[in-house]
Amino acid sequence: MSTPAGPSPLLPMPGRRFVIAVPFAWLTLFFLLPFLILLYISFVDMGDGIDPFRPLWDATTGVLHLKYENYWSIFKAEWDGPLFRTLYVEAYVRSLLYASVTATLCLLIGYPFAYFIARSPAAVRPALLLMVMLPFWTSFLLRVYAWKGILADAGVVNRLLMALGLTSEPLPLLYTNVSMLVGMTYVYLPFMVLPLYATLVKLDWRLLEAAYDLGATPWRAFWLVTVPLSKAGIIAGFMLVFIPSVGEFVIPSLLGGPENLMIGRVVWDEMFTANNWPRAAALAVVMIGLIVVPLSLYYRYSGERAAAGAH
């Protein structure tokens, strides 16, 4: 007796098409189109008429005017000057450094949090997750300004230190590298805890018991079993913290000092102070490239390794 033929895997069902099309439409509308507009602005020149930008295509002469200087000036201040010795390159390096440190701190602090929540009884986990997400119920700016009050010369930390007799005068905690990293770690910590928890809660804890039976110490079992199995959550959390931290503007402006000039502040200055939108767009495009290209290469490499392992 012949069974009815099902739908061909090459021609997915309408439901599957819809499910696949929704995220692609979302990414096209809110990422690809704005990026193409940004890319267009990065190659134009500022106009002097009603239109703020001069057209790329000259219909009379048929010449395409692309202003590559918007990109070249990022890496070289003058035509005969040294390469990579500009304010913009320094801001890129500083932003990548602070974003890496912030993501690392969030991982070191967030992993024990996520592990504790995942190992807690199932009845307690919703309350613990609610505590992690509770800061999102208040304004982002209010939370950053609260840290200004905590770290100020007359703030909570300095008053406590002087009350305990540990210092005789207020410590310069505000407008430093430490205050900026504290603020960024505090704000982005939930973005690390949630994906780690989602990975750790699905682990089979019997594997740890098997490791103990084979003579592994708790630390060795954690390092050889739990950490490798939670690799997906670590990578997801690191990226969720690292990517927005690179372009962070508010926290460095409110908690960082004048030497903490990150690329988000540079883009703001170029756009609203210098009124040079093409260069600001070029800075943003380069920043997107610094993030997207390594991520694409990594996921392609990891995908190839996974496919090779499956075969």
Low-confidence stretches: none
The global form is: globular
Structural class, judged by helices and strands?
mainly alpha
Strand order of the largest sheet: 1-2
Strand tally is 2
Question: Can you tell me about this structure?
Answer:
The chain is mainly alpha-helical and 311 residues long. 67% of the residues lie in helices and 1% in strands. It is built from 13 helices and two strands; from the N terminus they run αββαααααααααααα. It has helices spanning 14-42, 69-75, 87-119, 125-133, 140-151, 156-163, 177-200, 206-213, 218-229, 231-246, 250-255, 263-273, 277-310, and strands at residues 57-58, 63-64. Strand 1 (57-58) and strand 2 form a beta hairpin. Helix 3 runs antiparallel to helix 10 (231-246). It is globular and about 80 Å long.
Brief write-up:
With 311 residues, the chain is an all-alpha fold. 67% of the residues lie in helices and 1% in strands.
Which tags fit this structure?
mainly alpha
Set down the secondary structure blueprint.
Layout lengths: L13 H29 L14 E2 L4 E2 L4 H7 L11 H33 L5 H9 L6 H12 L4 H8 L13 H24 L5 H8 L4 H12 L1 H16 L3 H6 L7 H11 L3 H34 L1
Antiparallel strand pairs: 1-2
Helix pairs in contact: 1-13, 2-13, 3-7, 3-10, 7-10, 8-9, 12-13
